[in-house]
Specification:
Elements: H1 9-14, H2 16-27, H3 35-42, H4 57-71, H5 74-147, H6 153-160
Helix pairs in contact: 2-3, 2-4
Length: 161
């Protein structure tokens, strides 16, 4: 596998052991390529490459280039896809729970509405029965009043005219 590094050929010759480590890591499909892995592969400590020194900037850029190439390999695509699938599955599970909660709440509300409708029908029937009884009682009162020849004040005025 040929990679076009950003550094100069002289620089790569000077630090050939780091570039050999990068090429070895590129052969492993699952290896992550970063400063730690490169220095470990080359047999150096992480502190041997410091970000604040200008002499290491080309190597750090080349490590980034190698890492980007490595991330294009199928293993990392599969890994990213698996992570995305896990996130999608978690979101789907969360939405399913929310949907079921809403469905349950809707069912509860519809049951409450049906109960209220039944209560309203019952109360309307009781109201109609009470209205019928009240009308019957009014008729009885009027009958009693007419039998005892007691006239309403309003009907008395009609007779006086």
């Amino acid at each position: 596998m040929k990679i076009e590094f950003e550094s100069e050929p002289e620089y790569r010759k000077k630090y050939a052991h780091f570039y050999e480590a990068i090429l070895i890591l590129l052969q492993d499909q699952t290896a992550k390529i970063n400063v730690n892995s490169v220095t470990k592969q080359a047999g150096y400590s992480r502190s041997s490459i410091r970000k604040d020194r200008a002499e290491w900037k080309p190597l750090l850029k080349d490590i980034e280039v190698a890492n980007n190439v490595q991330l294009q390999k199928p293993h990392f695509f599969a890994k990213v896809t698996i992570e995305k699938n896990k996130a999608i599955s978690a979101n789907a599970k969360e939405y399913k729970e929310k949907y079921l909660n809403l469905l349950s709440a809707f069912y509860d509300l519809s049951r409450i509405v049906e109960d209220q409708k039944q209560t309203i029908k019952q109360l309307e029937l009781e109201n109609a029965e009470q209205s019928d009884k009240l009308a019957g009682l009014k008729q009885e009162i009027d009958k009693i009043k007419s039998n005892s020849k007691v006239a309403h004040l309003s009907s008395a005025k009609k007779y006086n005219k």
